Amino acid sequence: MIEASELKPGMVVLLEGEFHSVVSAGYHAGGGQQGSAVFTRVKNLKTGHVKELRLHPGDKLEEVSLDHLEMEYLYTDGVAFYFMNSDTFEQISLPSQTIGAYEKFLQPNMRIPVQLYEGEPVTIAFPPAVELNIVSTPPGLHEHETSTFKTATLTNGMEVLVPQFIKEGDTVRIEVASGKYLERVRRGARKP
């Protein structure tokens, strides 16, 4: 058990029988007739629903420790996503609601850490950024190379704004949370 005043982002707690990840937590000292409180936002790991809670600093919550197991993403049938343990070839499935917005970034054979509780899959620990290839983009405008952006289509079908110097075939890093371009990925080091 953990007190509400000790909550930190990233922790997983059990609320109303379901697993919730702490998105944010802040302690506010009370004044006058208002007592101190902990304001926290938690995300339901099964449904993806985020809710805000106001807790007393001494409220007890059950902290849950999840195990991480790297698994290979196989496919989706529209209802669930299927992953395989590369060592045992055992397959597990997670409902579509659990994957949520990460769906567009999942690619077959991608290795993803799956979070488990007592051997049962709960959610995936998706990386903050992914690398994808540019399938199509118009040629760059030389006089505007650094100040303007152009549209590019990625291998997953998503369109993003990229700098003018990006060309077809380039690999770029995309922030998963926002879907925005971060940087071009350079392969191999230049020889002196």
Task: Produce the secondary structure layout.
Layout: E1 2-3, E2 12-15, E3 18-28, E4 37-44, E5 50-55, E6 60-64, E7 67-76, E8 80-84, E9 91-95, H1 96-99, E10 111-117, E11 120-124, E12 129-136, E13 149-154, E14 159-163, E15 171-175, E16 181-185
Antiparallel strand pairs: 1-6, 2-3, 2-6, 3-4, 4-5, 7-8, 7-10, 8-9, 10-11, 12-13, 12-15, 13-14, 15-16
Please identify the structural class as seen in this structure.
Answer: mainly beta
Low-confidence stretches: none
The CATH topology name of the largest domain reads: SH3 type barrels
Q: The biggest beta sheet, please?
A: 6 strands, antiparallel
Number of helices: 1
Q: How are the strands ordered across the major sheet? A: 1-6-2-3-4-5
**Oligomer classification:** single chain
Number of strands: 16
Strand content: over 45%
| Gyration radius, in Å | 21 Å
Helical fraction: under 10%
**Structural domains: how many:** 3
What is the string of SSEs from the N terminus onward?
Answer: EEEEEEEEEHEEEEEEE
CATH class of the largest domain: Mainly Beta
| Rounded average pLDDT | 84
The global form is: flat
Pfam families: EFP, EFP_N, Elong-fact-P_C
GO molecular function, one term: translation elongation factor activity
Protein name: Translation elongation factor P/translation initiation factor 5A
GO biological process, one term: peptide biosynthetic process
